[in-house]
Amino acid sequence: MIWRVSDTSAKPMLSARVYGELRDAILRGDFAPGAALKPQELASAHGVSLAVVREALVRLVGDGLADRLTNRGFAVPLQSDQRWQDLAEARAVVEPAALRLSIERGDLDWEARVRATHHRLARTPAYEAGAGGVISAEWSRAHRAFHRALLEGSGNAVLLETFDRMWLAAELTRRWSAGRGPARDAVAEHRRIEEATLARDADAAAALLAQHFSLTAAALTEEA
What domains appear along the chain, each with residue ranges and CATH number? Predict the structure, then answer.
């Protein structure tokens, strides 16, 4: 059976597809910061209706990957926006606090997840081969899995939901900051966080995680 765009049953599937494609394109850097996201052009490019594209764009706004501008449609957020510093500050407060709870409450199964997700992250290439510095999708998944595993020992669903909401927008800032600012050794940063966590050294682990976020935020303030 061939679905028509007007079918109400097909619309959510089309919207989810377009959302995923636009999300990935924004995160890859296919759209520059501040670039207009024009529904008519996107509808034509993706072969869907305006309604489908608008649904996808509204969802991107909710994720922090697009802005809805008064009387001007949609656009990729600006890199200089204060919200990114606010986001980094929020993560530097929330996630180290959640990590402290994980270290206090986490069991052996949690330790095993932290160790396993770090092992995968450390052994996954960060960049696509021959893609000119494009972040590997597999590495991005491993990166998220490690950071989330650090907090799962807290057993606090609200904190984990907060992490999930902040992650996508933070992923955009991380990609923008890549290659900017002082040289970083992300492999060493993650290793030190893992070691302090598994050593149950809450003060060191929390400080290292906060510093991890502050380095990304600092890179965004550097001139391109």
Answer: 11-75 (1.10.10.10), 82-220 (1.20.120.530)
